[in-house]
Amino acid sequence: MPDTQWWNDNCKIKTFKTVTPIGFKVRPISELNNENEAGQKLNPARSQGIDWQNVRALELSFINQGFDTTKMPPIVLTDGRVIDGNTRVEALRNIEQGYICVYEVEIKDGYDIEDVYDEIGLGMNNHLASKPVQKSDCEKRLAVFFNRMGITEKKKGVEWFSTFDHPFTKDQVNDMVDKVIKHKRIGDTMSPFNMQTAKKWLEKNGKDTEVVMLNCSGTKRSSETYFLRTFKEVLLHFNETSEVLPITGFLSNVEAEDAEDARKAAVTEIKRLNKAINNLSVKIKEAHAKGEDFELLQLDAWMPQLTDVEHDLVKVQGK
Q: What share of the chain is helix, strand, coil (3-state, %, to 5)?
């Protein structure tokens, strides 16, 4: 059974803007609430929820070193909702600790639970074996803030970072705000598609569902992969049926303001490929005129990979 006096004697109490302090209390750990109705563990200030690796580290820390009474214990509302200290609560549950010292608070008028998660959930990460606040945690909470306020402004995002303690530099804060605004703009102004949902949209709207889908991604590597996949699909279909399938494209990971440029780039790439195919057809006709087959894909050799057996390029049989 912990004693609140340990913390009263040793702990430097932090003040907060969003809550009114009630003080240290010892409560049954069963009264603390950090689960939803489905029994899923909650940690709203963390982008990845409960960190179970950190839970195990804390279990050993509590067993071998006990409580560090110079640090703030878990901070909870009077109804038992855990604001900060979810990982410690889980560690103590796992080692079957029946009671826990907490610091109880009440939300001040003019603030809500999300403000409290921002200030305390993000800012209070200084306990034993703590996992420092991560950029992804801040990005998640900033997106929640923008949605709650109905705004997406760079200035407001930077100001939001001043509402809690964090280790990030000015440049890192600016980068995180820019990232959240960029991703939010994609979500707000671009209708997302993948191959499956694009096909469903065509079917629902009475369009030709036999078309080939082209995903024009915002990253160069992904776009090149999707273009090659589309080219292969069209080519194989033509080889089997002598029919040219139309292509319907969609954008992914592209901002609304860049959509037109991305579509133009895709059209340019398709024209480049078509020109290469036309040039290829000329060579094919020339070979056929000579009674020869034209082979564009010519596998000549394999790399030596059988240890102590292959010492040079392995020529393809029949070459």
A: 50, 15, 35
Q: Which two tokens stand for residue 36?
A: 């939803």
Do 142 and 100 touch, CB atoms closer than 8 A?
A: no
CA 275 to chain centre: 39
Domain ranges of the chain: 1-126, 134-189, 195-302
Measured in whole angstroms, the distance separating CA 250 from the mean position of its chain's CA atoms is: 21
Q: Sort strands 247-252 and 212-217 into parallel, antiparallel or unpaired.
A: parallel
Q: What is the mean pLDDT of residues 168-175?
A: 93
Other C-beta atoms within 10 Å of 62: how many?
A: 19
Q: What is the DSSP letter of 81?
A: B
CA atoms within 13 A on the CB side of 72: 22
Distance CA 45, CA 83 (A): 9
DSSP 3-state of 29: helix
Q: What is the 3-state secondary structure (H, E, C) of 245-274?
A: CCEEEEEECCCHHHHHHHHHHHHHHHHHHH
Measured in degrees and rounded to the nearest 5, phi and psi for residue 54 equal -70, -35
Burial class, 58, CB count within 10 angstroms (exposed 0-12 / middle 13-18 / buried 19+): buried
Question: pLDDT, tens digit, for every residue of 35-80?
Answer: 766 555 667 766 556 677 778 888 888 888 888 899 889 999 999 9
Q: Which pLDDT tens digit goes with each residue over 255-314?
A: 777 888 999 999 999 999 899 999 999 999 999 999 999 988 889 999 999 988 989 999
- The answer to whether the predicted template modeling score (pTM) of the entire model surpasses 0.85 is no
* CA distance to 36, 75, 131, 157, per residue, from 39 (Å): 5, 21, 24, 33
CA distance 1 to 63: 14
* Three-state secondary structure of 194-222: CHHHHHHHHHHCCCCCCCEEEEEECCHHH
Given the candidates 3.90.1530, 2.60.40, 3.20.20, 3.40.190, the CATH classification of the domain at 1-126 is 3.90.1530
